[in-house]
Amino acid sequence: xxxxxxxIVDDNINLTKTLSFILKRxxxxxxxxxxxxxxxxxxxxxxxSLVFMDIKMPRMNGVEVFKRIKKIVPNIRVMMMTAYxxxxxxxxxxxxxxxxxxxxxLDLDNLVTLVQTVTA
Amino acid sequence: MSTEEELWxxxxxxxxxxxxxxxxxxxxxxLLDSKLNIIDINKETLISIGLSEKKIIGKNIVDLYPDVKExxxxxxxxxxxxxxxxxxxxxxxxxxxxxxxxxxxxxxKVEGSLxxxxxxxxxxxxxxxKLKQTLVELKKSEEMYEDLYENAPxxxxxxxxxxxxxxxxxxxxxxxxxxxxxxxxxxxVFEIYHPDCMEDVKKTLQSFKKTGKVQDVELQVxxxxxxxxxxxxxxxxxxxxxxxxxxSVSALRDITKRKRxxxxxxxxxxxxxxLIKELRRQSNVTEAINKVLQEALTCETLEEVGKICLSIxxxxxxxxxxxxxxxxxxxxFDTIAISDPGxxxxxxxxxxxxxxxxxxxxDGIDRSTMREGKSRIVNDPANHPDSKGTPKGHPQITAFLGxxxxxxxxxxxxxxxxxxxxxxxxxxxxxxxxxxxAFVEVLKRMQKEKENSNKINxxxxxxxKHKNQLEEMVEQRTEELQDAQDELEIILDNVPGLIFxxxxxxxxxxxxxxxxxxxxxxxxxxxxxxxxxxxxNDEAQxxxxxxxxxxxxxxPKLNIEEPWDTPEGRSWINSSKIPFKDEKGVIIGIVxxxxxxxxxxKMEExxxxxEKLAIxxxxxxxxxxxxxxxxxxxxxxxFFLNMxxxxxxxxxxxxxxxxxxEVETSEKIISSLLDFARPKPLNKRxxxxxxxxxxxxxxxxxxxxxxxxxxxxxxxxxxxxxxxxLIQVFINIISNAVxxxxxxxxxxxxxxxxxxxxVAISFTDNGVGISKENLEKLFEPLFTTKxxxxxxxxxxSKTLVEGHNGSIEVQSKIGKxxxxxxxxxxxxxGVV
Lengths: 120, 832
What we know:
heterodimer, A: alpha/beta, Rossmann fold, five-stranded parallel β-sheet, 5 helices, 5 strands, globular, B: alpha+beta, Beta-Lactamase, 5 domains, five-stranded antiparallel β-sheet, 25 helices, 27 strands
C-alpha cells in the first residue's frame, strides 16, 4: 500500500516534531512547516492526503492559511488543531471545509485512527 | 204916487244920501265945474290929499294936481265936458304921505259939471304886478318841471288805463331800458317788465284797479340787452271829472343798487345773526363742556357722566334721546348710558330691568359711526344704506346724529343723539363733538383716578395681604411647629435608619422607632436608658468610646462601619455621630444616625468575589491555554516513546505511564480552570431535568457505602437549558456529597416546582457538614478543604448556574450534613 503524505503546520516545533515521529511510525510520510508561508510553499511542491493545521499561529492564522492552500489544491483535507478557545476561528475553519477540530493536548489513540480513516 | 214921482223922490233921497254916500265912499270923489274948478270933494279925497275942504273948494284942478295939464288930463277932462262921453283912465299919484298910488279914475259929466271918481287900485295893481311876475315864474317852473320830469333820476311813465300802453315817459325811463322815448311810447307796459316778475306785475295791476294806487311794489324791468333792473313802483291814477281813471302815472325807481345794498345788508345781518347765534351756541357749548367737566367731578360712575353728557347734549341739540358707549376689548360696543327718555324708549317690551346692552356689533346707522370714525348726521334714516331698522318696540328714529370720540387717534366710543324734530345741523354736530371731547377728558381723568385709586387700593390690599399673611404665618408657624414636631417624629420613625439623641451622660433623650424596635422596646421605654442597659459591657464600651471622642473633640465621627448583632443575627451598620450644641456652642449631647448596610456589605463582598473571579479567570485562561501546547508536546513525546520502546524495562515503561497520567491530571486541572475562567457558550436545548440528573449519576461512580434516594417530581416539564453544563454542575455536587460522607451515608436527590416559576433540585447528604466560616467561602474559587482538588468545582458550578439565570444555595450543619439547592427558571430567565 502506498504511503500517504501528511503535512503538519504548527509554530510549536516540539509539538510538530513529536507528532511527526508518531505518524511516521504509523506509516505516513510526514512533512512539517513552522508557519503559514512555509505550509503554502510545501503544498505547492507536493500533494498531501491530510494537513494538520494549528489555528493560532504568528503572522498568518490557520484559517487564513487554509483559504490560501485551498486555492492551490481545492479539495485539500485539513484538520485544525488548537490549544485555545478560539470559537470564531473554529467556526470559520469549519465553514471553509475543515474536516475536524483537534484540541491540544491531542488524544493520540483517536488521532491515529482518525488519520487512517480520513486518508484511506 | 206915480213912478216918476217915486223915481224922483228916490232921486232926492239919493241926492241926499249921495252926499253921505260920497263921504262914506272909500273912493275919491271930486266934482268940477266947466272951468274945472273944484266944486265939491269928499272926505276921503281930502284925507288922501291932506287938505281941508275950504282950501280945496274953488280951486282949479290944476292947482290941486299941477301935472294935469302936462299930462293931457286937462284936455281929456274938457273933452268929456264937451262930448259927455265918460272917460276911464288910470293915474299914478305920488302921495306925499302914502307914496305912489295907483288910481282908476272915472270921469263923467254930471249936469254940466264934471265928476271924477278915483278908485285906489294900488292894491290891485300890486296884485296884477305880482300875478304877472308869478306867471313868469310859473313859466320858468314849467320848464324846470319839464326838465325835472325828463331828467328825473326815477323813471316816469303814464299808462293808458284801457290799453295798458305807455303814453308818455321820461328820458330816464327810456334810457334806463336802453331805448329811445319814441320806441317806448306806444308799447304795452307789460313788455318792459321782466318775465320773472310777471305774476307780481299782474297782481299789482289788479290791486291798482281796486285802489287806484301802487305803493313801493318791487318789480323787475327788462333792459333791451336782457339784463334786469330792480325797481320800486309807485303809481297813482289820473281821473276824469266823473272819477273814471283815464291813465296812471307810474314812477319806477331803480333800486338795483339799493337791492344790492339791501342784500348785502341782509347778508351782513344774517351773518351777524349767525355770528351771534354761533357765539351764543359756542357759549352754550362751552357752558355745556364746563358743566360736563364740573358735574363729572361728583360722579362716581362713568354711567353718571354719560347721563350728564346725554342730558346736556339733548338740551343743546333738542334731541329726544341719546346714548353713549365705549368699544370694549373684543371690539364690540358696550353701552355706558342711555338718557332716561332713551331708556324708556329703548326698553324692549317685557324687560322690566333697565339693561345697558353690551357687546353689540359696530353696525346699524348708529354704531357704524364708529367704524367710519367721523361724525354723521342722518336725517333720513329709513333710506340710509346702514339702516337695519329698529328692534320691535323701539321707537322710530326720525333723525340721528352720531359722534365718535377718539383717544390717541383711535375711535373708542360714541355719542348718539336721536329725533331732533327738524333734523340735525352742523351746529348740533359740533356741539356734541365738543361734549364728546369733554367726555373723553372726563374718561381720561376717571381712568387716571381709577388707576391711582387702584394703585392705592392695591397697596392697601397688599398691606392687608401682608398683614394677613404675617398673621397667617404666625399661626401657621405655630401649627407648623407642632406639625413639624409631629412630622419630624413620623419622618424619624420611618427613616430606614437608627436615630438617637443622647445627652453627654450617655442617656437616650430621644430615639426613633427603628432603634427602639431593634431593641424590642417602645420609644418611651428606651428613653433614659444608657448603652450599658442595652448591650453587653464590652460592646457598649466600644460604642461609648466613640461617643466620648465626639463629645470631647466636638468633631463629628462619620461613616463608622461596624457589626451590629440583633436577635435576628449579625448585621452591618454605618453610623455617624455628630456633636449637638446649644446656641452658645456648648456641646450638650450627641446625635447618632445609623443605617443598615448589611445588604451593601454583601454586595460589596459579592463584587469583591466577582473581581477576584474575573482576575483569576483571566489568569487561569491565559495560563491554561499556554500550558496546553507544552503539555501537548510532552504527551506526544510520551506517546511516541511508549510506541518506540515496546520492549523496554518495566521502570521505563512505568515512568512513561506516570508522565501520561500526570499529563492527564494537568489536562483536567487546565480544563476546569478554563471552564471556570471562560464558560463555554450556552448550548441550550429543551430537556427533562430529571433525565439530566440521571445522566450525572451515571457518569459518577457512587461507592456502595452510600445510599442514593431519588425523589423526582414527574410533573416537571422539560425546560430550556444547556444539559452538558448542568450535568457538570450536578457531577460536582454529587462528588462533593460523596466526599463528605467518608463512611456510610445517604444522599437524597429531589426535584420539584416552586411557585410555578422555578425548578428546584436539591442534593442532601448526612455527611460531615460545613462550618459557618467555610460556608461563606464555599463558592470562592481555589477554596477547598480537600487534600486533592484545586477548589474550582463549586465556583464553576455557581458560575454555570448563574449563567442560566438560576441560583445555588447551601444549608449545612457540622456533623449533620449539607443540602445544596439549585433553582432554575422555568422560562429560562429570572433570579430568586
